[in-house]
Amino acid sequence: MTLTTQFYTMLAMAGMGAWLGASLDTYTRFVVRSKTARWLLFLHDFLFWVVQGLLFFYVLLSVNEGEFRIYIFLAVMLGFAAYQSLFKQVYIKLLEWMISFFIFISRLVSKMMRMMVFRPVVWTFQAILAIILFTMRNIYVLFRFFAVCLYKILKFAGYPIYFILYQCCRLLPAPVRGLLRRFLQKGAGFFEKGKKLFITIKAKLLKK
C-alpha cells in the first residue's frame, strides 16, 4: 500500500468517523428509546449498525481494496472526536431546522390538498344534494298544484252528475240506501287513511 493510498484511507476513515457521529445523532433524534418496544428497538439498532458496517466496508473497499490497518480505527476515532467537539452543535441545529422545514412543507402540502381536492369534492356533493332536494320540492309543489286544480275541475264538472245521482238515491228503497251509505262511509274512511299517509310523507320531505 503506497503512502498516497494510506493518506486517502486515513482521510476517508476520519470522514466516516464524523459520519458515524452525525448518524448516531440523527438516529437518536428520530428513535425515542423510552417509548419504543424492546424488540423493535433491538431491530432498529441491529439494522443501524449493519448499515453503518456496510458503508464503512464499501468506503474502505473503494479506497484501499478493503485492507485493514490499526491506523484505520484511530482515524475513525479521530473523525468521531472531531465531530463531537467541533461540528455536533452545528449539525444538531441544522438537523432541527431541516425537520422543522419538512414539517412545514408537509403541512403546507396537506393543506393545499384539502383546499384543492377534498373541499371541492365535498362542495360538489353538497351542491348536487341541494339541487336534488330543491328539484324534489318543486316537483312536489307542482304535483300538489295540479292535483288541487284537477280536483276542483272534477268537482265542478261532476256536480250535475252528483245532483242527479243524489236524486236517484232518494228514490231507492230504504234498505238499499242504508247499504249504499255504509259502503260510502267505508270508502270515506279509506280515503282519510290515505290522506293522513300523504300528510306524513309530506312532513318528512319538508324536514329534510
Strand-helix topology:
Elements lengths: L2 H28 L7 H27 L5 H101 L3 H34 L1
Helix pairs in contact: 1-2, 1-3
InterPro entries: YabQ (IPR019074)
Keywords: Membrane, Transmembrane, Transmembrane helix
Protein name: Essential protein for formation of the spore cortex YabQ
Short description:
By secondary structure, the chain is mainly alpha-helical. It has four helices and no strands.
Characteristics:
208 residues, mainly alpha, 4 helices, 91% helix, transmembrane helix, membrane, transmembrane
Write a structural description.
It is a single chain. The chain is mainly alpha-helical. The chain folds into 2 domains: 3-104, no CATH class; 142-206, no CATH class. Helix content is 91%, strand content 0%. The protein has 4 helices and no strands. α1 packs antiparallel against α2 (38-64) and α1 (3-30) packs parallel to α3. Keywords: Membrane, Transmembrane, Transmembrane helix. It holds the Pfam family Spore_YabQ. It comes from Bacillus licheniformis (strain ATCC 14580 / DSM 13 / JCM 2505 / CCUG 7422 / NBRC 12200 / NCIMB 9375 / NCTC 10341 / NRRL NRS-1264 / Gibson 46).
- Order of secondary-structure elements: HHHH
Instruction: Please count the helical segments.
Output: 4
Helix content: over 70%
Quaternary state of this entry equals single chain
Count the strands?
A: 0
Q: pLDDT under 50 segments (min length 5)?
A: none
Distance between the ends: 87 Å
**Largest sheet geometry:** none
Radius of gyration: 45 Å
Q: What is the general shape? A: rod-shaped
Strand content: under 5%
Structural class: mainly alpha
Counting structural domains, the number is 2
Rounded mean pLDDT is: 78
